[in-house]
Amino acid sequence: MTNKTTIVMVPARMASTRLPGKPLADIAGLPMIVQVMRRAEEAEVGRVIVATDTQEVADIVVQHGGEAVMTREDHISGSDRIWEALETLDPAGQVETIINVQGDLPTIDKASIRASLLPLENKEVALSTLATEIIHADERTNPNVVKLVGTESAMNCLRALYFTRATAPYGDGPLYHHIGLYAWRRSALKRFVSLPPSPLELREKLEQLRALEDGMRVDAALVDTVPLGVDTPADLERARAALSGT
Questions:
Q1: Count of structural domains within the chain
Q2: How far apart are CA 192 and CA 176, in angstroms?
Q3: Domain residue limits at 202
């Protein structure tokens, strides 16, 4: 049963340099944006809206029974895009929680989407995200695998102290792979998009550091799987194989 005060926003833009036209790429017979929309619908946590800057994407979403909101083309981040869409869709402020599911995660697990809401049960948490323990040794030193440095805040939850592309923390013990899905309190998202990019955000090229530098509390639910992010043609082929069962 969905919650009327929770909404799932899927930002989608066509201007991908590594994979042009990415939202409309075919994966197992459906455009990628529709596959992501289906995963969000399967989670059954709230109304699902695609926020896009391209009419063709909006039309495809509607053709497949979904909802789309048009946004400006010049947004720097998905967070800015979903905020504009939210203000258009819900100017009265009835929606309290916004889950941002990136439009290039066609294999995201519905249980992971649901898990992102768990840390928000603590009223001190401004926004929540996901993480999983790194298993493969090569990921520990891979700068493309973002690490969450945190401390246990509840069962299967970490309070984020830092996000980094470096190998951290030092010493023996688990390392955690950050998964870029966020559940926002509306007030936190409103504040976040009003802030300029922060020094550490610019240095690490990690948007979530803006929230930490501003003093927002960010907690992460621990999950078992990492969704495949589609950024390159090779990623696209892996997603096709995963969703076609081959």
A1: 1
A2: 24
A3: 6-238
